[in-house]
Specification:
By secondary structure, the protein is mainly alpha-helical. 70% of the residues lie in helices and 7% in strands. The protein contains eleven helices and three strands; from the N terminus they run H-H-H-H-H-H-H-H-H-H-E-E-H-E. Helix 11 links the parallel strand 2 and strand 3. The chain starts with a helix and ends in a 15-residue tail after the last strand. The structure holds zinc ion (2 copies). One of its GO terms (cellular component) is plasma membrane.
Length: 362
C-alpha cells in the first residue's frame, strides 16, 4: 500500500519535469509564431481604419461590415496570443494536465465570436435587400482591393509561421549535432528518451494545431470575401442601379463563414467530448494488448486528446504476471501506437486475491 502511494508521487513529478522540458524546447517556435501574430494585429488595425473610412465614404454595407469583421479578427488574434501564453505554462498540482485545453477553448471562443458577427451581418443585409441604399462603386472597388492586399500579406505571414515547419527545421539542426544525444542518454532508464522520440513522431503525424488551422482557413475566407466585394463594387460601378449587389455579397460571405468554421468547431467538440482521436484504432489496440503473453483480459479502455495531437490513454489489464505485462503493454503502446501519455492498471486474474474492479461511470 505504502509503495503504491509513493509511486504515484513520483509519477506526478515526472510529468511535471517532462512538461517543463517541452516548454523550453518549444519556447523558440512559439516566440516566432507570437511575433507574427503581433505583426498581424498591427496590419489588421491599419486595414480596419482604412475600411471604416472607405465604407463610410462609399456608403457600402459590405465594406463597413468587413471592417467590423476585421475588428473581431483582432479579438480573435488576442485570444490566440492569450491561449499560446497559457499553453506554455507548466502543469501544476491543481492542473495536472497543464493548460493544453486552453487552445481548444480559445478556438471555440473565436468561432462563437465569428458566428455572432455573421448573424448580425445577415440581419443588416436583409434590411438592405428590402430598402437598397446608394453606394459609390469606385470607392468600394478601391477599398476592397486594399482589403484583399491586406489578407494576402496576413496569409503569407501565417503560412510561414507554421509551427510544424519550424519544428522540422529545428529537428534537422539537432540531428546534425551529436552532443544533445549524449545528454539524453542519462534519462534512458526512466523512459524519458523513448517518450520524447514518440512525441516527436506523433507531432509529425498530427495535423496542424487547431488555432493554426483556424487562422489559415479564416484568412482564405476573408480573401474570398474581399474578391466578392471587388466583384460587387465592379458591378455597382458599371451599373449603379444594381445596389443589391452590396448586401448579396454579404449574404454569400456568411454562407462561406459557416462552411469554413463548422469543421473546426466539430474537431473542438470531439476533443471536449473526450472522443477517440480519429487516427487511433481502438479495436486494433485491444487486439494487440490481448495478444501479449499472459494477458487474460483488457477492459475499461479510454483514448482521448488533451489538445490536437496530444493523445492520452488508460486501460485495465488482467494478468497474474503484472510486471511483465505492464512492460510489454507500455512498450507496445509507445512504439506501435505512438501514445506518449498512458496509464495501465494491472489486475490479478487469481480469484484468491481480493480485488473487485468497480467503475462509477460505465
Ligand atoms: Zn477575418
Ligand atoms: Zn478493471
Amino acid at each position: 500500500m505504502n509503495s503504491k502511494s509513493q509511486e504515484k508521487n513520483i509519477q506526478v513529478e515526472d510529468a511535471q519535469t517532462g512538461i517543463s522540458k517541452k516548454f523550453t524546447l518549444h519556447q523558440k517556435n512559439t516566440k516566432k509564431y507570437l511575433r507574427r501574430l503581433y505583426f498581424n494585429l498591427v496590419i489588421c488595425t491599419c486595414f480596419m481604419t482604412g475600411e471604416i473610412v472607405g465604407g463610410i465614404v462609399s456608403g457600402s454595407i459590405a465594406i463597413l461590415t468587413d471592417a467590423f469583421h476585421i475588428f473581431t479578427d483582432i479579438l480573435g488574434f488576442l485570444i490566440s496570443i492569450a491561449s499560446l501564453h497559457i499553453t506554455r505554462k507548466p502543469a501544476t498540482y491543481k492542473l495536472t494536465f497543464g493548460f493544453y485545453r486552453a487552445e481548444v477553448l480559445g478556438a471555440v471562443l473565436s468561432i462563437a465570436l465569428i458566428w455572432g458577427l455573421t448573424a448580425w451581418l445577415v440581419s443588416e443585409a436583409i434590411v438592405r435587400m428590402i430598402t437598397p441604399e446608394t453606394v459609390d462603386g469606385l470607392i468600394m472597388l478601391v477599398t476592397a482591393c486594399g482589403g484583399l492586399a491586406g489578407n494576402i500579406i496576413m496569409g503569407i505571414v501565417l503560412i510561414n509561421a507554421d509551427p510544424e515547419q519550424i519544428d522540422d527545421e529545428e529537428e534537422d539542426e539537432k540531428n546534425g549535432g551529436s552532443t544533445s544525444k549524449g545528454a539524453n542518454e542519462e534519462n534512458e532508464e526512466n523512459g524519458e528518451n523513448g517518450e520524447k522520440l514518440n512525441e516527436d513522431e506523433n507531432k509529425k503525424k498530427q495535423s496542424k494545431s487547431l488555432n493554426m488551422r483556424a487562422s489559415i482557413i479564416h484568412v482564405i475566407g476573408d480573401s474570398i470575401q474581399s474578391i466578392g466585394v471587388i466583384i460587387a463594387g465592379g458591378i455597382i460601378y458599371s451599373k449603379p442601379d444594381y445596389k443589391r449587389a452590396d448586401p448579396v455579397c454579404t449574404l454569400l460571405f456568411c454562407i462561406v463563414v459557416l462552411g469554413t468554421t463548422l469543421p473546426i468547431l466539430k474537431d473542438c467538440i470531439k476533443i471536449l467530448m473526450e472522443s477517440t482521436p480519429p487516427d487511433v484504432d481502438i479495436s486494433e489496440i485491444t487486439k494487440s494488448i490481448k495478444e501479449i503473453d499472459e494477458v487474460m483480459d483488457v477492459h475499461d479502455i479510454h483514448v482521448w486528446s488533451l489538445s490536437s495531437g496530444k493523445v492520452s490513454f488508460s486501460c485495465h489489464v488482467v494478468s497474474n504476471n503484472p510486471n511483465f505485462v505492464l512492460e510489454k503493454a507500455t512498450n507496445l503502446l509507445k512504439e506501435k501506437f505512438h501514445i506518449g501519455h498512458l496509464t495501465i492498471q494491472v489486475e490479478a486474474g487469481d480469484s484468491s486475491i481480493e480485488f473487485t474492479c468497480e467503475n462509477d461511470l460505465h
